[in-house]
Amino acid sequence: MRRLLILVTVASGTTGALFACSSTAPSPAAPPAVDGGDADRADAGDLDAGRADSEADADGGDEDYVVPDASVVCETSPCVIGIAGSWDGYCAILSDGRAACWGANDSGQLGKDPETSSVTTPSLVEGLTDVVELATNIENTCARTGDGTVYCWGQAALVHMGTAADASEPPFGVITTPTREAAVPPANSITVGGGFACVTVSDGSLSCWGTNERRELGRGTSEQSMLPPARATLVTRSAATAIGGLGRTFVIATDGSVLSWGANTAFGANNYLLGRDTSEDPNERPTLVRLLARVRDISTAFSHSCGVAGRFVECWGSNANGQLGRGTFEALSHLPGRTILADVTDDEDVDASTTGHDVPVQVVTGQAHSCAVLGSGRVYCWGSAGAGRVLGTQVNVGAVQGRPTRIDGFSGPVVRLAAGNGGGCALLRTGAVECWGSNDRGQLGMGSIDITPHPAPIRLTFPQ
Question: Under CATH, what is the fold of the domain 3-25+55-459?
Answer without folding.
Answer: Methylamine Dehydrogenase; Chain H (2.130.10)
